[in-house]
Amino acid sequence: MSDTAQKYDIPFGRPWIEDEDRDAVMRVLQGHVLTHGPECKGFEDDWVAMMGGGYAASTSSCMASLHLAWMDVGVGPGDEVIVPAMTHAATVHAVALCGATPVFVDCEAGSGNMTADAIKAAITDKTKGIGIVHYIGIPCDMPAIMKVADAAGLPVVEDCAIAVGTRIDGIHVGLFGHVGCYSFYPVKHITTCEGGMIVSNNEETVARIAKFRAFSVDRTYSERKVPGIYDVADVGMNYRMSEMQGALGRTQLKKLPEILKRRKANFEALKAGLEEIGAIRVIDDTDPRYTNTHYCLIAVLEGDLAARRDDIILALQAMGVGTSVYYPHPVSRLTAYKKRYGYKEGAYPNAETISDRSIALPVGPHLGPDDMRDIVSAMQNAVRS
Ligand SMILES: *Cc1c(COP(=O)(O)O)cnc(C)c1O
Questions:
Q1: How many structural domains is the chain composed of?
Q2: What pTM value is reported for the model?
Q3: Is 90 in the pocket of ligand 1 (CB under 6 A)?
Q4: Residue 4: inside a domain, yes or no?
Q5: Does any ligand 1 atom lie closer than 6 A to the CB of residue 59?
Q6: Residue 14 placed within a domain
């Protein structure tokens, strides 16, 4: 890198917290209702309004939502569940925690998503469910996947952790399968510090999961006529969201249209700039049915650049450009799963390419057009150094 290289301040992710968000949290603390209250209920209602349909229950994280989802499906030892190799460990942990066996499927190179055909090829007599992930805001082809799933009678759990606002023909992801799960971890589209949501088109499914989320107590707090008296009909969890988080989620959600607008503009500017450099392939969607929500920009390094990925990341870091890797390994290559099932290098070639040769670049609402120009300059510098 030359001595004249600029120094930027471009973090990969930065939660967008304003006075409105802080005030909402403080209002909860000024009262006495810290859980089981109107803020979580309000957040759930606002979420349904944003999606334009369905039912929603707030949870403590996306991992909690995913665990609730597979507990509700009822998978266990001896059952197989299809999952993508290219995802966050949480997608697979939720299946493994239930005692079921994850069956990994490679993604498509262009979108990072699993295809309906690849899923179909992985179905066996033991398959009891399909876990899909909408990679970095690009939807999987849910109409095609649901056709395969319905023909085989298999429930689909959608991990929408990084696909808030993602739609197919106007229908929000998470509403195609049995349930959809969301994350409000700080770097995701919106944040509640930690937090999640689980949604479904089926009211009974959400009602059942909402009970399971709160120890499987048969009556909610407000439904108890005699305080303290309730029954517990099942073994359950405590995966609830707090009122502070619910209040924060509501103010965050108001910013979503602006967040998605900025992400799209940033993504398009950055993509155009990077493609000028050459030997960089940007993961994107090309389907006119899709509304992509640009969680980040995945730059896949090709040719001579591919082997220099980690050095380029370090050079970008030295110039003050924050990056990440989504995701750093096919989950089946992580020790926890390699130990159980073994791993053959080359088994998931498209996922391996993304893990080993790509850089995730920021396009979040904390950044604007100047930052995108700076990232392109930094990348030019890093590639030449
Ligand atoms: C971040 C992420 C999760 C985990 O979300 P938490 O809310 O932190 O539990 C799960 N799945 C995917 C695809 C993610 O990106």
A1: 2
A2: 0.96
A3: yes
A4: no
A5: no
A6: no
β-pair type (80-84, 101-105): parallel
| Amino acid identity at 254 | K
Q: Is the CB of 197 under 6 A from ligand 1?
A: no
Q: Average pLDDT for residues 225-249, to the nearest whole number?
A: 92
Q: Give the ligand 1 atom nearest the CA of 87.
A: 13
Domain residues for the domain of 266 are 256-384
Q: What's the whole-number mean pLDDT along residues 197-221?
A: 93
The percentage of the chain sitting over the pLDDT mark of 90, rounded to a whole number, equals: 93
Within a domain: 248: yes
pLDDT digits (tens, 9 = 90+) for 140-165: 999 999 999 999 999 999 999 999 99
| pLDDT tens track for 328-364 | 999 999 999 999 999 999 999 999 999 999 999 999 9
Contacts of 72 (CB under 8 A, 6+ apart): 178, 179, 205, 208, 209, 212
